[in-house]
Amino acid sequence: MNIHEYQAKQVLKGFGAPVAEGVPITSADQAEAAAKQLPGPLYVVKSQIHAGGRGKGKFKELPADAKGGVRLAFSIEDVVKNAKEMLGNTLVTAQTGEAGKQVNRLYIEDGADIARELYCSLLVDRQYGRVAFVVSTEGGMDIEAVAHDTPEKIQTIVIDPATGVTEADVAAINAAYGLTGDAAEDGKSLFPALYKAFVEKDMAMLEVNPLIVMENGRLRVLDAKVSFDGNALFRHEDMRALRDETEEDAKEIEASKWDLAYVSLDGNIGCMVNGAGLAMATMDIIKLYGKEPANFCDVGGGAGKEKVAAAFKIITADPNVQGILVNIFGGIMKCDVIAEGVVAAVKEVGLKVPLVVRLEGTNAELGKKILNESGLTIQAADDLDDAAQKIVAAVG
Which residue range or ranges hold the ATP-grasp domain (predicted)? Predict the structure, then answer.
Protein backbone atom coordinates (compact mmCIF):
# COMPACT_ATOMS: atom_id res chain seq x y z
CA MET A 1 0.00 0.00 0.00
CA ASN A 2 1.32 3.44 -0.97
CA ILE A 3 0.59 6.75 0.74
CA HIS A 4 1.01 10.38 -0.26
CA GLU A 5 4.09 12.45 0.45
CA TYR A 6 2.38 14.61 3.07
CA GLN A 7 1.18 11.49 4.88
CA ALA A 8 4.63 9.92 4.74
CA LYS A 9 6.16 13.04 6.24
CA GLN A 10 3.67 13.03 9.10
CA VAL A 11 4.56 9.40 9.82
CA LEU A 12 8.29 10.17 9.78
CA LYS A 13 7.80 13.30 11.87
CA GLY A 14 6.23 11.08 14.52
CA PHE A 15 9.55 9.24 14.73
CA GLY A 16 11.54 12.45 15.06
CA ALA A 17 12.56 13.10 11.46
CA PRO A 18 13.03 16.79 10.54
CA VAL A 19 10.39 17.88 8.01
CA ALA A 20 9.15 21.28 6.86
CA GLU A 21 5.80 22.71 7.85
CA GLY A 22 3.09 22.02 5.31
CA VAL A 23 -0.66 21.94 4.70
CA PRO A 24 -2.50 19.51 2.39
CA ILE A 25 -5.42 20.89 0.37
CA THR A 26 -8.04 19.43 -1.96
CA SER A 27 -9.49 22.67 -3.34
CA ALA A 28 -7.95 25.84 -4.76
CA ASP A 29 -10.19 27.77 -2.37
CA GLN A 30 -8.07 26.39 0.48
CA ALA A 31 -4.72 27.53 -0.97
CA GLU A 32 -4.60 31.06 0.47
CA ALA A 33 -5.46 29.96 4.00
CA ALA A 34 -2.94 27.13 3.77
CA ALA A 35 -0.13 29.44 2.66
CA LYS A 36 -0.92 31.90 5.45
CA GLN A 37 -0.20 29.16 7.98
CA LEU A 38 3.40 28.93 6.74
CA PRO A 39 6.34 31.27 7.40
CA GLY A 40 7.11 32.08 3.74
CA PRO A 41 8.24 33.98 1.75
CA LEU A 42 9.14 30.88 -0.28
CA TYR A 43 6.47 28.20 -0.72
CA VAL A 44 6.43 24.90 -2.61
CA VAL A 45 3.23 23.67 -4.27
CA LYS A 46 3.41 19.90 -4.68
CA SER A 47 1.08 17.57 -6.58
CA GLN A 48 0.10 14.60 -4.44
CA ILE A 49 -0.12 11.50 -6.64
CA HIS A 50 1.22 7.98 -6.16
CA ALA A 51 4.02 8.35 -8.70
CA GLY A 52 7.54 9.73 -8.86
CA GLY A 53 8.99 12.23 -11.29
CA ARG A 54 6.44 14.90 -10.41
CA GLY A 55 8.90 17.77 -10.79
CA LYS A 56 9.62 16.87 -14.41
CA GLY A 57 6.03 15.90 -15.16
CA LYS A 58 3.72 17.72 -17.54
CA PHE A 59 0.03 18.47 -17.28
CA LYS A 60 -2.07 17.21 -20.18
CA GLU A 61 -4.44 20.17 -20.09
CA LEU A 62 -1.75 22.88 -19.87
CA PRO A 63 0.66 24.23 -22.52
CA ALA A 64 3.81 22.18 -23.12
CA ASP A 65 5.99 24.90 -21.56
CA ALA A 66 3.92 25.02 -18.36
CA LYS A 67 5.64 24.19 -15.08
CA GLY A 68 5.60 20.64 -13.73
CA GLY A 69 3.92 19.04 -10.74
CA VAL A 70 6.21 20.61 -8.11
CA ARG A 71 6.45 24.40 -8.22
CA LEU A 72 8.13 27.19 -6.29
CA ALA A 73 5.95 30.12 -5.33
CA PHE A 74 7.30 33.43 -4.03
CA SER A 75 4.03 34.89 -2.78
CA ILE A 76 0.65 33.76 -1.52
CA GLU A 77 -0.82 34.95 -4.81
CA ASP A 78 1.55 32.60 -6.67
CA VAL A 79 0.44 29.74 -4.44
CA VAL A 80 -3.22 30.35 -5.31
CA LYS A 81 -2.46 30.72 -9.03
CA ASN A 82 -0.53 27.44 -9.13
CA ALA A 83 -3.18 25.63 -7.12
CA LYS A 84 -5.85 26.66 -9.61
CA GLU A 85 -3.73 25.41 -12.51
CA MET A 86 -2.76 22.09 -10.96
CA LEU A 87 -5.83 20.77 -9.13
CA GLY A 88 -8.13 18.64 -11.26
CA ASN A 89 -5.66 18.36 -14.13
CA THR A 90 -3.84 15.23 -15.27
CA LEU A 91 -0.12 15.00 -14.51
CA VAL A 92 1.96 12.73 -16.74
CA THR A 93 5.32 11.56 -15.38
CA ALA A 94 7.84 8.88 -16.25
CA GLN A 95 6.11 6.59 -13.75
CA THR A 96 2.44 7.22 -14.59
CA GLY A 97 2.58 6.23 -18.24
CA GLU A 98 0.81 8.24 -20.94
CA ALA A 99 -2.53 8.09 -19.12
CA GLY A 100 -1.14 10.14 -16.23
CA LYS A 101 -2.89 10.70 -12.91
CA GLN A 102 -5.42 13.36 -11.98
CA VAL A 103 -4.17 15.67 -9.24
CA ASN A 104 -6.81 15.75 -6.51
CA ARG A 105 -4.56 16.92 -3.68
CA LEU A 106 -1.77 19.44 -3.25
CA TYR A 107 0.71 19.92 -0.44
CA ILE A 108 1.61 23.54 0.28
CA GLU A 109 4.96 23.46 2.05
CA ASP A 110 7.42 25.93 3.51
CA GLY A 111 10.43 26.41 1.24
CA ALA A 112 14.03 25.64 2.12
CA ASP A 113 17.45 27.04 1.21
CA ILE A 114 19.23 24.00 -0.22
CA ALA A 115 22.99 23.57 -0.10
CA ARG A 116 23.13 19.87 -1.13
CA GLU A 117 20.68 17.22 -2.31
CA LEU A 118 21.26 13.62 -1.18
CA TYR A 119 19.46 10.35 -1.82
CA CYS A 120 18.39 7.97 0.95
CA SER A 121 16.16 4.90 0.89
CA LEU A 122 15.52 1.87 3.04
CA LEU A 123 14.42 -1.50 1.74
CA VAL A 124 14.83 -5.19 2.42
CA ASP A 125 18.02 -6.30 0.67
CA ARG A 126 17.17 -9.79 -0.61
CA GLN A 127 20.83 -10.69 -1.00
CA TYR A 128 21.44 -10.30 2.73
CA GLY A 129 17.92 -10.81 4.05
CA ARG A 130 18.20 -7.60 6.04
CA VAL A 131 17.06 -3.99 5.91
CA ALA A 132 19.59 -1.80 4.14
CA PHE A 133 20.19 1.90 3.58
CA VAL A 134 20.79 2.79 -0.06
CA VAL A 135 22.52 6.16 -0.18
CA SER A 136 24.03 8.50 -2.73
CA THR A 137 25.48 12.00 -2.82
CA GLU A 138 23.57 12.50 -6.09
CA GLY A 139 20.04 13.11 -4.84
CA GLY A 140 17.22 14.86 -6.65
CA MET A 141 15.19 14.32 -9.78
CA ASP A 142 17.85 12.41 -11.74
CA ILE A 143 18.52 9.52 -9.35
CA GLU A 144 17.39 7.00 -12.01
CA ALA A 145 20.08 8.32 -14.35
CA VAL A 146 22.66 8.00 -11.56
CA ALA A 147 21.68 4.35 -11.01
CA HIS A 148 22.00 3.67 -14.74
CA ASP A 149 25.07 5.70 -15.65
CA THR A 150 27.18 5.89 -12.47
CA PRO A 151 26.08 3.08 -10.12
CA GLU A 152 29.34 3.41 -8.21
CA LYS A 153 27.91 6.60 -6.71
CA ILE A 154 25.29 4.54 -4.88
CA GLN A 155 26.32 2.72 -1.69
CA THR A 156 24.50 0.13 0.41
CA ILE A 157 24.81 -0.13 4.20
CA VAL A 158 23.23 -3.31 5.56
CA ILE A 159 21.81 -3.17 9.11
CA ASP A 160 22.04 -6.06 11.57
CA PRO A 161 18.51 -6.63 12.96
CA ALA A 162 19.97 -7.75 16.27
CA THR A 163 21.52 -4.34 16.93
CA GLY A 164 19.57 -1.91 14.77
CA VAL A 165 21.41 1.18 13.54
CA THR A 166 24.67 1.40 15.48
CA GLU A 167 27.11 4.29 15.85
CA ALA A 168 29.29 2.53 13.30
CA ASP A 169 26.37 2.38 10.84
CA VAL A 170 25.68 6.09 11.31
CA ALA A 171 29.36 6.85 10.79
CA ALA A 172 29.33 4.80 7.59
CA ILE A 173 26.26 6.63 6.25
CA ASN A 174 27.68 10.02 7.22
CA ALA A 175 30.96 9.11 5.50
CA ALA A 176 29.12 7.99 2.35
CA TYR A 177 27.44 11.41 2.21
CA GLY A 178 30.53 13.32 3.32
CA LEU A 179 28.58 14.90 6.18
CA THR A 180 30.33 16.93 8.86
CA GLY A 181 29.38 19.33 11.63
CA ASP A 182 25.67 19.87 12.34
CA ALA A 183 24.62 17.68 9.43
CA ALA A 184 26.60 14.72 10.76
CA GLU A 185 25.18 15.37 14.22
CA ASP A 186 21.64 15.36 12.77
CA GLY A 187 22.43 12.04 11.09
CA LYS A 188 22.98 10.46 14.51
CA SER A 189 19.27 10.88 15.26
CA LEU A 190 17.78 10.84 11.75
CA PHE A 191 19.12 7.53 10.43
CA PRO A 192 18.11 5.46 13.48
CA ALA A 193 14.69 7.20 13.34
CA LEU A 194 14.19 6.21 9.69
CA TYR A 195 15.14 2.61 10.47
CA LYS A 196 12.80 2.54 13.48
CA ALA A 197 9.92 3.82 11.34
CA PHE A 198 10.65 1.28 8.62
CA VAL A 199 10.69 -1.68 10.99
CA GLU A 200 7.90 -0.70 13.38
CA LYS A 201 5.46 0.22 10.60
CA ASP A 202 6.32 -2.81 8.42
CA MET A 203 7.31 -0.67 5.45
CA ALA A 204 8.28 -2.26 2.16
CA MET A 205 10.12 0.85 1.00
CA LEU A 206 11.03 4.21 2.45
CA GLU A 207 12.59 6.75 0.09
CA VAL A 208 13.79 10.23 0.96
CA ASN A 209 14.73 12.01 -2.25
CA PRO A 210 16.05 14.46 -1.72
CA LEU A 211 17.41 14.44 1.77
CA ILE A 212 18.87 17.94 1.90
CA VAL A 213 21.61 19.74 3.70
CA MET A 214 20.29 23.27 4.17
CA GLU A 215 22.34 26.44 3.99
CA ASN A 216 22.38 26.48 7.80
CA GLY A 217 24.06 23.06 7.77
CA ARG A 218 21.11 21.04 9.09
CA LEU A 219 19.44 18.00 7.52
CA ARG A 220 15.82 17.96 6.37
CA VAL A 221 13.56 15.37 4.75
CA LEU A 222 12.45 17.34 1.69
CA ASP A 223 10.47 14.58 0.01
CA ALA A 224 9.28 11.18 1.23
CA LYS A 225 7.79 8.15 -0.43
CA VAL A 226 6.53 5.23 1.66
CA SER A 227 4.93 1.91 0.80
CA PHE A 228 3.81 -0.73 3.28
CA ASP A 229 3.89 -4.51 3.25
CA GLY A 230 0.27 -5.39 2.51
CA ASN A 231 0.59 -8.66 4.43
CA ALA A 232 1.32 -6.72 7.63
CA LEU A 233 -1.35 -4.03 7.40
CA PHE A 234 -3.64 -5.94 9.77
CA ARG A 235 -1.23 -4.80 12.49
CA HIS A 236 -1.47 -1.13 11.54
CA GLU A 237 -5.00 0.24 11.47
CA ASP A 238 -3.56 3.77 11.64
CA MET A 239 -1.63 3.21 8.42
CA ARG A 240 -4.57 1.51 6.69
CA ALA A 241 -6.59 4.63 7.36
CA LEU A 242 -4.18 6.57 5.12
CA ARG A 243 -5.11 4.56 2.02
CA ASP A 244 -6.32 6.67 -0.91
CA GLU A 245 -8.31 4.38 -3.18
CA THR A 246 -8.71 7.10 -5.81
CA GLU A 247 -5.01 6.57 -6.59
CA GLU A 248 -5.46 2.84 -7.17
CA ASP A 249 -6.78 0.77 -10.05
CA ALA A 250 -10.43 -0.15 -9.41
CA LYS A 251 -9.77 -3.75 -10.47
CA GLU A 252 -6.88 -4.06 -8.04
CA ILE A 253 -9.06 -2.70 -5.24
CA GLU A 254 -11.75 -5.27 -5.97
CA ALA A 255 -9.10 -8.01 -6.16
CA SER A 256 -7.76 -7.06 -2.73
CA LYS A 257 -11.22 -7.68 -1.25
CA TRP A 258 -10.93 -11.30 -2.41
CA ASP A 259 -7.28 -11.65 -1.40
CA LEU A 260 -6.27 -12.05 -5.03
CA ALA A 261 -2.79 -11.14 -6.26
CA TYR A 262 -3.77 -8.90 -9.17
CA VAL A 263 -1.83 -6.27 -11.11
CA SER A 264 -3.16 -4.44 -14.17
CA LEU A 265 -0.89 -4.42 -17.22
CA ASP A 266 -1.05 -2.83 -20.66
CA GLY A 267 -1.80 -5.85 -22.87
CA ASN A 268 -5.02 -7.40 -24.17
CA ILE A 269 -4.92 -11.05 -23.02
CA GLY A 270 -6.33 -11.57 -19.54
CA CYS A 271 -4.66 -14.26 -17.42
CA MET A 272 -5.99 -16.28 -14.49
CA VAL A 273 -3.42 -18.63 -13.00
CA ASN A 274 -2.70 -20.31 -9.67
CA GLY A 275 0.81 -19.71 -8.43
CA ALA A 276 3.07 -16.72 -8.99
CA GLY A 277 5.74 -18.68 -10.87
CA LEU A 278 3.19 -20.23 -13.21
CA ALA A 279 1.61 -16.81 -13.72
CA MET A 280 4.97 -15.36 -14.74
CA ALA A 281 5.56 -18.25 -17.13
CA THR A 282 2.09 -17.74 -18.61
CA MET A 283 2.77 -14.07 -19.25
CA ASP A 284 6.16 -14.89 -20.76
CA ILE A 285 4.75 -17.38 -23.24
CA ILE A 286 2.02 -14.96 -24.31
CA LYS A 287 4.76 -12.45 -25.11
CA LEU A 288 6.75 -15.18 -26.86
CA TYR A 289 3.89 -15.62 -29.32
CA GLY A 290 3.59 -11.92 -30.00
CA LYS A 291 0.92 -10.60 -27.63
CA GLU A 292 0.91 -8.84 -24.27
CA PRO A 293 -0.78 -9.87 -20.99
CA ALA A 294 -3.47 -7.55 -19.66
CA ASN A 295 -2.86 -8.52 -16.05
CA PHE A 296 -1.04 -10.63 -13.52
CA CYS A 297 -3.66 -12.63 -11.62
CA ASP A 298 -2.73 -15.34 -9.12
CA VAL A 299 -5.80 -16.85 -7.46
CA GLY A 300 -3.61 -18.82 -5.05
CA GLY A 301 -3.34 -22.46 -4.22
CA GLY A 302 -6.47 -22.87 -2.13
CA ALA A 303 -9.07 -20.75 -3.89
CA GLY A 304 -12.69 -21.83 -3.89
CA LYS A 305 -15.38 -21.52 -6.54
CA GLU A 306 -16.45 -18.04 -5.39
CA LYS A 307 -12.91 -16.67 -5.46
CA VAL A 308 -12.31 -18.02 -8.95
CA ALA A 309 -15.58 -16.48 -10.13
CA ALA A 310 -14.58 -13.15 -8.61
CA ALA A 311 -11.21 -13.24 -10.39
CA PHE A 312 -12.90 -14.00 -13.70
CA LYS A 313 -15.31 -11.08 -13.27
CA ILE A 314 -12.44 -8.69 -12.53
CA ILE A 315 -10.59 -9.79 -15.66
CA THR A 316 -13.64 -9.47 -17.90
CA ALA A 317 -14.37 -6.00 -16.49
CA ASP A 318 -11.18 -4.72 -18.14
CA PRO A 319 -12.21 -3.15 -21.49
CA ASN A 320 -8.74 -3.84 -22.90
CA VAL A 321 -9.14 -7.61 -22.56
CA GLN A 322 -9.76 -9.22 -25.96
CA GLY A 323 -9.16 -12.80 -24.86
CA ILE A 324 -8.68 -14.79 -21.64
CA LEU A 325 -6.28 -17.60 -20.81
CA VAL A 326 -6.97 -19.70 -17.71
CA ASN A 327 -3.94 -21.80 -16.81
CA ILE A 328 -4.32 -24.02 -13.76
CA PHE A 329 -2.11 -26.70 -12.28
CA GLY A 330 -4.17 -28.64 -9.77
CA GLY A 331 -2.14 -29.39 -6.68
CA ILE A 332 -3.83 -28.18 -3.52
CA MET A 333 -6.43 -26.59 -5.77
CA LYS A 334 -8.60 -29.03 -7.69
CA CYS A 335 -9.21 -28.49 -11.40
CA ASP A 336 -12.94 -29.27 -11.09
CA VAL A 337 -13.31 -26.39 -8.59
CA ILE A 338 -11.65 -24.06 -11.08
CA ALA A 339 -13.91 -25.29 -13.86
CA GLU A 340 -17.03 -24.76 -11.73
CA GLY A 341 -15.89 -21.23 -10.87
CA VAL A 342 -15.22 -20.36 -14.50
CA VAL A 343 -18.57 -21.75 -15.64
CA ALA A 344 -20.43 -19.89 -12.88
CA ALA A 345 -18.71 -16.61 -13.73
CA VAL A 346 -19.30 -16.94 -17.47
CA LYS A 347 -22.97 -17.68 -16.95
CA GLU A 348 -23.29 -14.63 -14.70
CA VAL A 349 -21.34 -12.02 -16.66
CA GLY A 350 -21.44 -13.51 -20.15
CA LEU A 351 -18.55 -14.26 -22.47
CA LYS A 352 -17.80 -11.68 -25.13
CA VAL A 353 -14.19 -12.63 -25.84
CA PRO A 354 -12.38 -15.91 -26.63
CA LEU A 355 -11.60 -18.11 -23.62
CA VAL A 356 -8.92 -20.80 -23.55
CA VAL A 357 -8.55 -23.06 -20.52
CA ARG A 358 -5.66 -25.35 -19.71
CA LEU A 359 -6.13 -27.69 -16.75
CA GLU A 360 -3.51 -30.10 -15.45
CA GLY A 361 -3.16 -32.02 -12.19
CA THR A 362 -5.70 -33.01 -9.55
CA ASN A 363 -9.12 -33.80 -11.07
CA ALA A 364 -8.03 -32.37 -14.45
CA GLU A 365 -10.23 -34.76 -16.45
CA LEU A 366 -13.24 -33.97 -14.28
CA GLY A 367 -12.57 -30.26 -14.76
CA LYS A 368 -12.41 -30.68 -18.53
CA LYS A 369 -15.65 -32.64 -18.45
CA ILE A 370 -17.38 -29.81 -16.58
CA LEU A 371 -16.19 -27.31 -19.16
CA ASN A 372 -17.11 -29.50 -22.13
CA GLU A 373 -20.61 -30.14 -20.82
CA SER A 374 -21.26 -26.52 -19.85
CA GLY A 375 -22.56 -25.57 -23.28
CA LEU A 376 -20.23 -22.55 -23.29
CA THR A 377 -17.80 -21.57 -26.04
CA ILE A 378 -14.58 -22.54 -24.28
CA GLN A 379 -11.47 -23.85 -26.01
CA ALA A 380 -9.60 -26.56 -24.12
CA ALA A 381 -5.81 -26.77 -24.38
CA ASP A 382 -3.54 -29.77 -23.95
CA ASP A 383 -0.59 -27.89 -22.44
CA LEU A 384 0.68 -24.37 -21.84
CA ASP A 385 2.27 -24.01 -25.25
CA ASP A 386 -0.93 -25.12 -26.94
CA ALA A 387 -2.98 -22.77 -24.75
CA ALA A 388 -0.82 -19.75 -25.56
CA GLN A 389 -0.95 -20.40 -29.29
CA LYS A 390 -4.72 -20.83 -29.21
CA ILE A 391 -5.46 -17.62 -27.30
CA VAL A 392 -3.05 -15.57 -29.43
CA ALA A 393 -4.63 -16.94 -32.60
CA ALA A 394 -8.12 -16.30 -31.24
CA VAL A 395 -7.31 -12.67 -30.42
CA GLY A 396 -5.73 -12.28 -33.87
Answer: 9-237
